[in-house]
Amino acid sequence: MSNVIQPRLTQVFRFVRSSYADGVAELVYAFDDGEELIERVRFPHAPTLPATHVDAFNAALRLLHLIAGVSYYKAGVPPKIEVSGELLDDSTADLLDALYLHGLAEFAYRNGLDLRGRIAFPRGGHAKPVAGKLGLPQRTLVPIGGGKDSLVAVEAVKSIAGEATAVWIGNSALIAACAERTGLPTLNIQRELAPGLFELNRLGAWNGHIPVTAVNSAILSLAAILYGYDSIAFANERSASVATLEYEGQQVNHQWSKGYAFEQLLSDWLHSHVAADLDYCSLLRPYSELAVTRAFAKLTPYFDVFSSCNRNFKLLGPKPADRWCGQCPKCHFVFLALAPFLPKPRLLSIFGRNLLDDESLAAGFDALLEYQDHKPFECVGEGAEARAALYALSQRPEWQEDALVARFRSEILPQLDVAQLALEPWLEPAGEQRIPARLLPALAVFD
Ligand SMILES: CC(=O)N[C@H]1[C@@H](OP(=O)(O)OP(=O)(O)OC[C@H]2O[C@@H](n3ccc(=O)[nH]c3=O)[C@H](O)[C@@H]2O)O[C@H](CO)[C@@H](O)[C@@H]1O[C@H](C)C(=O)N[C@@H](C)C(=O)N[C@@H](CCC(=O)O)C(=O)O
Ligand SMILES: Nc1ncnc2c1ncn2[C@@H]1O[C@H](COP(=O)(O)OP(=O)(O)OP(=O)(O)O)[C@@H](O)[C@H]1O
């Protein structure tokens, strides 16, 4: 780097510019007068954009620039944010202030930072006229994450013969195999983080979790306009809206950009700023993790390709030797949440071992139950649904003798109210959702 900076000592984070040409979006950022950080997103076989779609595309590109900046902003968290000398309209600034504050809440908590009052996107700009309809084709982008949730969403859309494409961002071979297995047309978008970020990390930048679903959502909004789709159907369950923990009056949710608050902000913003007929939603929003695992338990053709273990999805460093590392909270939770709905031998063949018969994993399962610990910083269900799943297993002869189930019965269960441990209420849909009318019949897969 020519202008070497100490990221934690910087004063201004700058959104320098964004551009798009020949299928490549360039998103440029800088701290103070430091070197430019350039992220690139590559859209394969990108068609030429009709003139009628250019304004919508530019609005979506601008939002992607603003949202993807979160990876870089977090490296320094300087006191000032500048957007190429511009002022944002209030709804854009509201969306970004909320995303950076709540999406970085885990990052802030774990680094001992308080971002309240620090994040303020420049506001006061005039809003453009509300976007009209573009006449987008009635087809759906279904993002694939390699795990169970998106495969349930795929099968839901297939069940109503909806036209859909399985889309994923990045170069995971595991996700590619899942996408192929869906039998849908596929689309793989590449994303390259600015190499300068890793240099800043070496120089002692702040580091930690970022709201990656928001970044993926913004990339797919751009893709929807570029390739012509009227809907983007994520697979974010109801449980994703529940905070991981509360600290000094602030909710800290590892999965904030998978939650309903973000879904509402983004879907409203896309309707008003990009296209009135572009719907962004989560198809699984009314359902708990347990309702989703019950639906997934019927999808046997995916059992030998899927994995929910996030260690598979690292950009850098080694991947686990097995699809399921067996050590992380995601492996523990998915094992537990599938167990009530699958024959035991089937479950053990997916994971290659019995995680509930391994005493060394007691602390990991305790955290899932919110017993003597808070929920892990991972994409796992609510403590109460983990308790309901383990209670159900503790009543079944084939599971009762396993070390952690037996420990639950003898040590934890006596401290719980059995009336709160039923599995059935978790299988019912509840709460708000924003699923477009034409996709609602797809939810029959949960019946
Ligand atoms: C795969 C994973 O879990 N990564 C998290 C991990 O990063 P690590 O250093 O172990 O490896 P890399 O993922 O290769 O990251 C290298 C560096 O790059 C930074 N970075 C990466 C992606 C990005 O979009 N922006 C970035 O700045 C990263 O900070 C590393 O320095 O630990 C990191 C620190 O806690 C996490 O930031 C990494 O998380 C990734 C962004 C990621 O993709 N995670 C998803 C698996 C994930 O957590 N999904 C959540 C969704 C939450 C949401 O609100 O969207 C979930 O499933 O609950
Ligand atoms: N690389 C990716 N590209 C596109 N979408 C992704 C990617 N990773 C995750 N997603 C999407 O983000 C949402 C949340 O991801 P999440 O990891 O919870 O889902 P999943 O991988 O389908 O299931 P699981 O909870 O079993 O891991 C899902 O809709 C998923 O498809």
Automatic annotation (TrEMBL):
Cellular component GO terms held in the UniProt record: cytoplasm
Reactions catalysed, as given in the entry: UDP-N-acetyl-alpha-D-muramoyl-L-alanyl-L-glutamate + ATP + H2O = UDP-N-acetyl-alpha-D-muramoyl-L-alanyl-D-glutamate + AMP + diphosphate + H(+)
Domain MurL N-terminal: 7-283
Domain spans labelled MurL C-terminal: 305-415
EC number: 5.1.1.23
GO BP: any one term: regulation of cell shape
Chain's role: Cell wall formation. Catalyzes epimerization of the terminal L-glutamate in UDP-N-acetyl-alpha-D-muramoyl-L-alanyl-L-glutamate.
Protein name, as recorded: UDP-N-acetyl-alpha-D-muramoyl-L-alanyl-L-glutamate epimerase
Organism listed in the record: Dyella tabacisoli
